[in-house]
Design goal:
148 residues, NIF_FeS_clus_asmbl_NifU_N, iron-sulfur cluster binding, Nitrogen fixation protein NifU, iron ion binding
Length: 148
């Protein structure tokens, strides 16, 4: 597949997650953590909710507003971490952060699926914070809850 076709496919994946977000909404009840974060540079904001039970991410949802990159990244992240052990979700977050910084990553470690579509964001430093907002919210929530 040529670079232009791959770039077009990646854009389509990002726009699909933006227009049809997965896991948008709230988790009912009180047995979850809720993390609010924003990116003051561009105005993106997210409320991430994680339900962690016995070290396993049972549910993940988000709400907020922002650009297509921040909202599609939140959609992809919540989809990816559901059912994962929390330490694996944090490892995936580290891998994602490395990918956003343009570092070589071991794609064998995790099946990134749709998340790979965000790889091109690393070429636009001003947009990296958009892509990592939901991931940073997850890390912050886990850290604050002492879940790791």
């Amino acid at each position: 597949m040529s670079f232009n076709n791959l770039d077009t496919l990646y854009r389509q994946v990002i726009m699909d997650h933006y227009k049809n977000p997965r896991n948008r909404g709230t988790i009912e009840g009180d047995d979850h953590m809720s993390i609010d974060m924003n990116n003051p540079t561009c105005g993106d904001r997210i409320q991430l909710q994680l339900q962690v039970e016995d070290g396993l991410v049972k549910d993940a949802k988000f709400d907020g507003e922002g650009c297509s990159i921040s909202m599609s990244s939140a959609s992809m992240m919540t989809q990816a971490v559901k059912g994962m052990r929390i330490e694996d979700a944090l490892s995936m977050s580290k891998l994602f952060s490395d990918m956003m910084q343009g570092k070589e990553i071991d794609e064998q470690e995790f099946d990134l699926g749709d998340i790979e579509a965000l790889q091109g964001v690393s070429k636009f430093p001003a947009r990296i914070k958009c892509a990592t907002l939901a991931w940073k919210a997850m890390e912050k929530g886990v850290d604050e809850q002492g879940q790791s």
